[in-house]
Amino acid sequence: MHSKTNDEEMFLIIEEWQRSKLSHKQYCREHDIAYHLFHYWYRKYRDQQTAPTMPGFVQVKPAPAGPFAEFRFPGGSRVIFHQPVSIEYLKGLAG
């Protein structure tokens, strides 16, 4: 195993280990990887997976697509809103 492995190669090795279902030690033994080096790679991989993309910012995942709100009338009719509406507007629909 080369001592200078770039991040991309390193992360591919970690992902391969995760799919293998082997223990750290077993995987290292079978692939001739120094155990301490594997843990360095794994820590770096884990830190990158959990770190925000920019300092001071938190990654925001988009909400699933779908209606924002739904108003059902007593007769079974309904109105679906795909953007935020005020509570006053909804109260006006009921009255």
Notes on the structure:
It is a single chain. The chain has 95 residues and is mainly α. It folds into 2 domains: 7-50; 62-95, no CATH class. Helix content is 48%, strand content 8%. The protein is built from 4 helices and 2 strands, in the order αααββα. A two-stranded antiparallel ribbon has the order 1-2. α1 (7-20) crosses α3 (35-50). The longest helix is centred in the middle third of the chain and has 16 residues, at 35-50. The radius of gyration is 25 Å and the shape is elongated. The mean pLDDT is 77.
| Low-confidence residue ranges | none
Beta-strand portion reads: 5-15%
Shape: elongated
- Rounded mean pLDDT is 77
Q: Got a strand count?
A: 2
Strand order of the largest sheet: 1-2
Query: End-to-end distance, in Å?
Result: 73 Å
- Give me the strand/helix succession: HHHEEH
Helix content: 40-55%
- What structural class should be given to the helix and strand makeup? mainly alpha
* Number of helical stretches of at least 4 residues: 4
Number of domains: 2
Radius of gyration, CA atoms, in whole angstroms: 25 Å
Q: What does the largest sheet look like? A: 2 strands, antiparallel
List keywords for this structure.
95 residues; mainly alpha; 2 domains; 4 helices; 2 strands; 8% strand; elongated
Structure, briefly:
The protein has 4 helices and 2 strands, in the order αααββα.
How do the strands and helices of this protein lay out in sequence?
Layout: H1 7-20, H2 24-31, H3 35-50, E1 69-72, E2 78-81, H4 87-94
Antiparallel strand pairs: 1-2
